[in-house]
Write a structure and sequence with these properties.
Layout: H1 4-8, H2 12-21, E1 43-47, H3 54-62, E2 68-69, E3 80-84, H4 94-101, E4 113-119, H5 126-145, E5 151-157, H6 166-172, E6 184-186, E7 206-210, H7 215-226, E8 230-235, H8 240-250, E9 253-256, H9 264-271, E10 276-281, H10 296-319, E11 323-332, H11 336-339, H12 345-369, E12 372-378, H13 384-387, H14 391-399, H15 409-420, E13 431-434
Parallel strand pairs: 1-2, 1-3, 3-4, 4-5, 5-6, 7-8, 7-10, 8-9, 10-11, 11-12, 12-13
Helix pairs in contact: 7-15, 9-10, 10-12
The protein binds nicotinamide-adenine-dinucleotide.
Length: 442
């Protein structure tokens, strides 16, 4: 399962050979750890045009603890660059985007972060729409160029709504977003819930994670617990022992339950008498076959676990008021649901269904229940699921992204934890790919 190539390219002969042969050279990613909670180096705050949010954005960036400057000469090797392009309202303004980033992009530190801040392309001003949409192509291309483990995202804020962007900027400008690149994240103007302690943003909150015995789900449970949540780990009764071990390590509660059971929502509600603040639908299965060879049972079981049960339990738990106001629902899509995959018509249908569900439910759930609904869409993540993929296909899956490596379960978990934060009220209806900017479905 270990990525031996990544290890090899970190050695002197590995560096020599990969350079000579023109092979992919993945950079080891700097992920969050208690010893490295932040990106370290300075943060360069640049502006294209006459932005009205410069001061407010500067003040917000200063709260990240990074040393913020708007002078390139004061940040010889910036760990992060934030380019405020909210004032770019016509294609002519894009010249300022080039002028701001061209001189400094080469100096970005390895594993650095670029965040372009824009606004939503207008529905009735086609000049503004052209300019703001241009930022998307720009961002995605820059993500493919920067290399050395650096990442690039486009963050669209609601007009002048800087404060709602705090949790997202903190996440994107931290080691927690190591495997995220080329993403476009669009925020609403919803005010964030106040955060007393950014090191334990989920303190006092109750979270339930499905499929939590192992893999990505176990990591999600671990990161939510690290961030202060009381966690309930749900998985099928067949893996009761593994589930009990995972839960015990996290001081969490184990709930052996098949999510497709008729009474699943009632059993979940009974396990969370004070309600749920975070509900993570992570359980998922694959039953691969080409459509021509796929028996109905393989089709139905995948749709039932990955999509129908998510719809059923979400509807029932929202209706019963089990998901508390200010609650967060996070579902799990997949890159297969965006790009499609040979042998996975059932799986891709279920995961694309999750995307439809999230987009439609998000505004409704916010209006009716004060709850946000988002999805992570993992790319190639190193788990038992991907270890079972034949070697050559596995190797291709690992390398075909801008970071030239697979992600780790913790990368999906960190993204889930950002969605789950009380301060992430403005993050709603988003499908965020945790895929190192996969070339598939791009
Ligand atoms: P995994 O197989 O390692 O873990 C999935 C867990 O879900 C298992 O513990 C399993 O017992 C549990 N589960 C299955 N059916 C269940 C049910 N009916 N009720 C309750 N629990 C059930 O898989 P993983 O790689 O950790 O994937 C987790 C999620 O991420 C899945 O939704 C998967 O589709 C998605 N995903 C994974 C990848 C990847 O590269 N690993 C990529 C894209 C999406």
């Amino acid at each position: 399962m270990a990525d031996r190539y990544l290890h090899f390219t970190g050695t002197a002969p590995g560096r020599f050979l990969t350079r000579r042969l023109g092979l992919p050279r993945p950079a080891p990613l700097r992920r969050w750890s208690p010893g490295t909670p932040s990106l370290g180096g300075p943060l360069l705050h640049l502006t294209a045009g006459d932005s009205v949010i410069t001061q407010e954005l500067g003040a917000l960036l200063a709260t990240t603890g990074l040393d913020v400057t708007d002078r390139a000469e004061r940040a010889a090797r910036p760990a992060g660059i934030v380019l405020d392009a909210t004032a770019v309202s016509a294609p002519g303004g894009l010249t300022a985007v080039h002028a701001a980033l061209h001189p400094v992009i080469r100096s970005l530190a390895p594993g650095g972060r670029v965040v372009v801040v824009g606004v939503r392309p207008s529905a009735d001003d086609h000049h503004q729409a052209a300019a703001q949409q241009a930022l998307e192509g720009f961002t995605r291309s820059l993500g493919k160029e920067v290399g050395r483990g650096a990442t690039v995202q486009l963050l669209r804020i609601a007009p002048d709504a800087v404060a709602p962007a705090e949790s997202t900027l903190r996440f994107l400008l931290s080691p927690r977003s190591a495997y995220l690149s080329g993403q476009v994240i669009e925020l609403t103007a919803a005010a964030p819930d106040p955060v007393a302690d950014w090191t334990a943003p989920l303190a006092g909150r109750t979270a339930l994670v499905t499929g939590a015995a192992r893999g990505i789900g176990a990591s999600v449970a671990g990161v939510l617990a690290r961030d202060g949540a009381r966690v309930i780990c749900l998985d099928v009764p067949q893996v009761r022992d593994e589930l009990a071990r995972t839960a015990e390590e996290l001081d969490a509660t184990a709930l052996p339950l098949d999510i497709t059971a008729e009474d699943a929502a009632d059993r979940i509600a009974a396990a969370a008498p004070d309600g749920l603040d975070v509900l993570v639908h992570n359980a998922g299965i694959t039953r691969d076959r080409r459509l021509a060879n796929m028996p109905a049972e393989r089709w139905t079981s995948v749709l039932d676990v990955n999509l129908d049960s998510v719809l059923r339990t979400t509807d029932a738990l929202l209706k019963a008021g089990t998901v508390n106001r200010g609650g967060r629902i996070v579902a799990t899509a997949s890159i297969a649901g965006i790009a499609g995959n040979n042998g996975q018509t059932n799986y891709a249908a279920s995961k694309a269904g999750i995307i439809g569900l999230v987009r439609a439910l998000a505004p409704q759930a916010a209006a009716d229940h004060g709850v946000t609904v988002n999805a992570v869409a993992p790319g190639f993540i190193e788990t038992k699921m991907t270890a079972a993929v034949p070697l050559l296909i596995r190797e291709a899956g690992r390398r075909m992204n801008s970071l030239a490596q697979g992600g780790l379960p913790v990368d999906v978990a960190e993204t889930t934890a950002w969605f789950a934060q009380p301060a992430s009220t403005a993050v709603n209806g988003q499908i965020v790919r945790v895929c190192g900017q996969s070339l598939l479905g791009a």
